[in-house]
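Tutorial, part two.
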Amino acid sequence: MTTDVENDQTGLQAARQQFKGAVVEPPTSQRVSANPLIAAFQTNNMVQRIVSGLLLGAAVSVYLALGPAAAPIHLCSFVVSVCNYEYAWLSHRIAYRFTATYAHQSQDDDTVMDIVPLDVTSVAASRLPFGARYPKLVAGAVAFFGTGIVTTAFILLQIHLFHYETVTYMSIYQTPIVYTWIDFILLIAISTWITVYCAMITPTFASAVNLVMQQCMYSLPLVTHFTCYRYDTHCYQVGFESVPEVNIVVLVLINRVPWWRHVSKAQTIEAVLHVILDVVGFAYIAMLMTPV
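Running the prediction step on this input gives:
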């Protein structure tokens, strides 16, 4: 996905610079290994997809076979976070292309000046200390910090609210499934880490906030699934998970629309596009991947 964005960047920048009468230098090609196998993996997209598919398929099969009882739920949460990360870059590129096209066709110098070159090198973590040089390390550190806070909060909730009990119930196949409190903690820890990490490597802070919000709306039914007679002998309704569609629309509007500042026409179009794309992304990814 990011490779496609990088390939698209040159064309968009060239169109903008040509509109101004300038020329864009072609990007520097990456270094390729002398080993033919490594070189094929570096340059051939099909080889990358095949190798990734084999590795992911094997890892998923082993995890589902040897993992905890809630392994499918953990896996779905992981997939939703990764898909939201990929979709964040896709929507970032789509919004830029539409906005840039509008600016160039409007023949308005002020509107054109609002369009800056598409940035595919900076991520949300790049705005943090040391993030410009080590964005992935900073993203991982922030993810570990956030995971520690959220996991500790849920452990404290267990001590004062939930019950340390193992609950056995019959699945739809009439086979007993045992849920223990460690499954619940694993879900919280894994989901939080991958969510925060993916959010930190999205293109902008607004994209990062949107990813976290969408993951929270996706996770509310999962948390209730654990805390309502499965993880616990009581039923706790966590949050307002009955209307996630309404919740996400309101949160996206708050996050994407510049309510408190004056914006140009191009920025208005970009905000509207992001709202539409974010809502579509939630319906396409989170709602279709809900395992409960």
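The radius of gyration is 22 Å. In part three we will examine how such features are distributed along the chain.
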